[in-house]
Write a structure and sequence with these properties.
This protein has helices at residues 13-22, 40-43, 58-159, 180-188, 204-213, 237-245, 251-254, 261-273, 283-293; strands at 6-7, 36-38. It is mainly alpha-helical. 7% of the residues are buried.
C-alpha cells in the first residue's frame, strides 16, 4: 500500500489519469488537497498492528527523478536557447525598429520640406498665372493696336506718302530756303478755293485758267498741281481735303530748310522707310523726326 488517500469527492477520469501519469515518485502537490480527508502521511504516523513490512522505493524514485531532472534540464536548456535566440531576435527587431523610426523621422522631415517646396511652387504658379493673365491682356491690347496699325498702314499704302514732296522739285522751290511766308502758303493757300475745284479734271489748261483768274496767284502754288499726283486726274473732295490739310503742322517745321533735290529725295525715302514707326504719332511729330534724321 502506498500513497493511500481518501477524498471527499469522486475524482474524474482525467484527474485519475494525471495521477497515474505522475507515478508513485511524483513530487507534485496534490491538486485535490482541499478535499483530501484521509491522508497517507497521517496514516504513517499511526500505530501499527499485525504484520507490516516497509518497502523503500527511494532507489527507484531517485532513478525516476534523475531521468525526469535530465529531461527537465534538457527542456530548460532548450528553453534557454530559445530565450537567447528570442532575445537576439528581439535585439535585432529593436535595431530594425530604431532604424525604421529614424527613417520615418527623416521621411517626415523630407515630406515637410517637400510640402514647403510644393507650397512655394504653388505660390509661384499662382503668381505666374496672374502674370500670364496680364500678359494675355497686354497681348490682346497689342493685337488690337496691331490690327489698327495694319489698317492705318493699308490706308497709307493706298494713299502713298502723306506729303507731296515732289512739289519741291518745282522751279520755285528747288535750292530755295523755305521762309515763313512760303510755309504759310503751303498750309493755307488752298483753303478758299479747293472746294470750288471739285469735279474738274486737273489739266495744264485748267491750271492756266485758274492762274489767270485767281487774284492770289502770287501767293498760291499752282505749280504743285502739275505734279503726277494731280495732273490729268479729277479733282475730288478727297483731293480738296488733302490740299487744305496736307501741310498742317508741318509747314512751320520746313522753315529754314533748303530744298535741294538731295534733301527732297531724302525726305521721301525716310518717310517710306519709317512709315510703320510713325503710325501712332501725330503728323507734326512724324515730320519733326524726319528733320532730325536729315
Amino acid at each position: 500500500m502506498f500513497q493511500l488517500n481518501a477524498y471527499a469527492k469522486e475524482l474524474t477520469a482525467e484527474e485519475i489519469r494525471r495521477m497515474a501519469d505522475d507515478g508513485m515518485c511524483s513530487l507534485k502537490e496534490d491538486e485535490n488537497e482541499d478535499v483530501r480527508v484521509l491522508k497517507w502521511e497521517d496514516m504513517l504516523k499511526k500505530s501499527r498492528t499485525g504484520t507490516v513490512t516497509d518497502i523503500y522505493l527511494s532507489h527507484e524514485c531517485v532513478k525516476t527523478l534523475i531521468i525526469r531532472l535530465t529531461l527537465t534540464e534538457r527542456k530548460v536548456n532548450e528553453a534557454e536557447g530559445q530565450l537567447l535566440a528570442t532575445q537576439q531576435t528581439l535585439e535585432e527587431t529593436q535595431q530594425i525598429l530604431q532604424e525604421t523610426q529614424q527613417s520615418l523621422e527623416q521621411t517626415l522631415e523630407e515630406n515637410e520640406e517637400i510640402e514647403q517646396t510644393l507650397n512655394q511652387t504653388q505660390t509661384k504658379l499662382n503668381t505666374t498665372e496672374l502674370e500670364i493673365q496680364d500678359i494675355s491682356s497686354n497681348l490682346t491690347r497689342t493685337s488690337d493696336k496691331l490690327q489698327t496699325a495694319l489698317k492705318q498702314l493699308e490706308q497709307c499704302n493706298q494713299t502713298n506718302e502723306k506729303w507731296d514732296w515732289d512739289l519741291f522739285f518745282q522751279e520755285s522751290y528747288v535750292n530755295t530756303t523755305i521762309s515763313s511766308e512760303v510755309a504759310e502758303q503751303l498750309r493755307s493757300s488752298w483753303d478758299d478755293i479747293a472746294e470750288r475745284m471739285i469735279g474738274f479734271k486737273v489739266t495744264e489748261q485748267f491750271i492756266s485758267f485758274w492762274q489767270h483768274i485767281d487774284q492770289c496767284t502770287d501767293q498760291r502754288p499752282w505749280s504743285m498741281l502739275l505734279t503726277d499726283r494731280y495732273l490729268n486726274k479729277v479733282f475730288t473732295r478727297e483731293t480738296a481735303n488733302e490740299l487744305t490739310t496736307m501741310w498742317d503742322g508741318i509747314s512751320d517745321r520746313l522753315i529754314g530748310v533748303t530744298m535741294t533735290k538731295e534733301t527732297i529725295e531724302l525726305l521721301k525715302y525716310i518717310e517710306k522707310i519709317y512709315l510703320n514707326i510713325f503710325l501712332y504719332a501725330d503728323v507734326e511729330a512724324r515730320f519733326r523726326h524726319l528733320i532730325v534724321l536729315i
